[in-house]
Amino acid sequence: MRPGPGPDAEPGADRAPDAPADPRPRTTTRDPAELTRRLSAWLATRLPGARATGATVPASNGMSSETLLFDLDHPAAPPPGPAPGGVPTSCALRLAADPAAYTIFPRYDMPRQYRTMQLVADHTDLPVPHAFWLEEDPAHLGAPFFVMARAAGRVPPDVMPYTYEGNWLHDASEAERDRLEAASVSVLARLHDQVPLHAAQFLATPGTGDPLRRHVDAQHAYYTWVVDGLPRSPLIERGFAWLADHWPDDPGDTVLTWGDARIGNIVYDGFEPAAILDWEMAALGPRELDLGWMIYLHRFFQDLTRSGGQHGLPELLRRDRVEDRYAALTGHPPRAMEFHTLYAALRHAIVMLRVAYRQVHFGEVPVPADPDGLILHRDTLEAMLAGRYW
């Protein structure tokens, strides 16, 4: 997940001309050079003689976990391994957040994410990056991590958002963006339909009640953690009250949900998915959790773009089209989507509040008099609560 909209930004984010200045908060307290040295030492324990070359930290590195890109140079590198001619394997290392950097989430379960990627790779035809190794011992790099293959392709940028002018997706034709949208909705349909529920039980959220109830309860617990000792958000608390008053009569069937289901977490080869990234928010729940997130996270960018005076991409990922595409692919018409899009906006608001309080912690901004003012999509959430957004 990534702040603005979420805590993990992929490499390759384009900056749009005349876009607002990028107020990226601090994302780490780690030294990249030291991290690379320690990684090389660890690689040698897995493949004697292996070395990491060309290591880089993406300029848009995340805050929920960190990414180090490198090439693995070794003749016996794991599949897909070096190509003919000795080209090394391109890898990405995902490292749990630095505990000293005022983490976005209270817990980072890298084994859970690694296992989820393996589950999806084993049971679906989705392009999940091949995961090479999981290291649970924090002694090596200061936190658990895993190493996976790095896919070639393009990611719709977060900073500045792809809805702004001056990036590959904005510059594409309507037909190309339509193709990307169709392929992206297909990712959700295939994930939900192909993963057997019994194999995904390790992703069940603890608690009582059905999976949706457990999911919302877990988000409320997360909010409580975010505001511990800090000003509470009246807007977010009104959002939880609205959910309670508008609970779906039938939450629907339970599937494996991706969690951070958005096009900014997909690497595209042309306009087709080449890699599906960021599985840390995966959970069991109704299909609409992913659909609401995909629709709303695009609308967050689109609303931000319009407020900045640009047209954006209003036809991309429109709610009616996403719902129709998904229903045609799965035979499951999405239900209670006002509930699920508002829930997505509420979850995003909690993350944004944590990111803002993180800036307070590092002295980048003062303690706010009005915590709701820290939520960029405050007006959107207010409109949703009032029933005048869609």
Q: Main sheet: which strands, in order across?
A: 1-2-3-5-4
Computed structural class: alpha+beta
Number-wise, the strands total 9
Number of helices: 10
Radius of gyration: 20 Å
Sketch the major β-sheet. 5 strands, antiparallel
Outline the low-pLDDT stretches.
2-26, 83-87
Strand content bin: 5-15%
Helix percentage: 25-40%
The average pLDDT score comes to 89
Output the helix-strand order. HEEEHEEHHHHEEEEHHHH
Distance between the termini: 25 Å
What is the 3D form?
Answer: globular
Explained architecture:
By secondary structure, the protein is an alpha+beta fold. It is 38% helix and 13% strand. The protein contains ten helices and nine strands. The protein has helices spanning 32-46, 110-123, 168-171, 174-194, 211-226, 234-245, 288-307, 319-330, 337-361, 378-385, and strands at residues 51-56, 65-73, 89-96, 131-135, 145-149, 254-257, 266-269, 272-276, 283-286. A five-stranded antiparallel β-sheet has the order 1-2-3-5-4, with helices on both faces. β1 (51-56) and β2 (65-73) form a beta hairpin. α5 (211-226) packs parallel to α9 and α9 runs antiparallel to α10. The protein is globular. Mean pLDDT is 89; it is low at 2-26 and 83-87.
